[in-house]
Design brief:
It is a single chain. This protein has 241 residues and is α/β, with parallel strands linked by helices. The protein is built from seven helices and ten strands. It has helices at residues 15-21, 23-28, 90-103, 114-127, 160-166, 187-194, 215-226, and strands at residues 5-10, 33-38, 42-43, 75-76, 79-80, 87-88, 108-112, 148-152, 174-179, 200-205. It has a six-stranded parallel sheet with strand order 2-1-7-8-9-10, with helices on both faces. A two-stranded antiparallel ribbon has the order 3-4.
Length: 241
């Protein structure tokens, strides 16, 4: 019996909330696909949210910055400055993921929002691991390049480390999923990541800032994760006039 496809899941809020929100999707995967949810190392505090952003606006209404319950504590892969030009703590996240990758083998990575940006960056880093020496273990990459990357509501991570890792492009086959009414990660922001993606597939859904999980999308994700290079019909084909 073939081993299940193992997918590293990178959240936009925290691992527990991400897993719960994808409950229907997880169940639809069956025994052939294993999703492994991990937490970002950075805990977000009330001071991290200014008057223009809130947990609800970021699609994390279940999270609570004052709770002692780790399942509702909002987490991040980095903190940005107001201009979104610096990613504070990104190096810590990369080292955490390095250690996770060293311990096991994953076929691909699936991220949402900031987790999607992290997923694409991690895919690019595994293509050129020597571009960031702290990522190496005994001079070698901790893990082979991913077979695929899924970036839902993704964007390019800010900062020099991200720029140096991506260079002009990265080649890991990547499924980009965007919401047509997403006001958190707008299309223009996502375009920065799309333009770097050599082997990309773009799908859009009619909703906002979330992972689409209607039956047709669950089937599509299951088929894609099983065979990312296969011929898979779009879950929401557009009529071309």
């Amino acid at each position: 019996m073939a081993a299940p496809t193992k997918v590293l899941m990178l959240h936009g809020q925290n691992a527990s909330i991400f897993s719960k929100r994808l409950g229907a999707l997880r169940k639809s995967m069956g025994k052939g696909i294993e999703m492994v949810f991990v937490d970002g190392p950075i805990v977000l505090l009330p001071v991290d949210f200014d008057g223009t952003s809130s947990l609800a606006a970021l699609g994390a209404s279940e999270a609570n910055t004052t709770s002692s319950d780790p399942s509702t504590t909002p987490r991040a892969w980095w903190k940005s400055n107001p201009e979104r030009t610096i990613a504070h703590g990104l190096e810590e996240s990369i080292l955490l993921l390095r250690d996770i990758l060293q311990r096991d083998r994953y076929d691909g990575v699936f991220g949402f929002s900031q987790g999607a940006a992290m997923a694409a960056l991690l895919a690019a880093l595994l293509e050129r691991p020597h571009s960031y020496p702290p990522f190496l273990i005994d001079g070698e990459a901790p893990h082979p390049p991913f077979k695929f990357c899924v970036a839902v509501s993704g964007f390019k991570a800010p900062g020099s480390l991200s720029a140096e890792t991506f260079g002009t492009s990265y080649s890991t086959p990547t499924l980009h999923v965007l919401g047509r009414t997403d006001v958190i990660v707008i299309e223009e922001r996502s375009k920065g990541l799309l333009d770097l993606s050599q082997n990309k597939r773009l799908e859009e859904h009619d909703g906002g800032h979330f992972v689409p999980s209607k039956a047709k999308w669950r089937e599509f994700f299951r088929n894609y994760l099983t065979d990312p290079l296969g011929v898979i019909l779009s879950p929401e084909p557009r009529t071309i006039l």
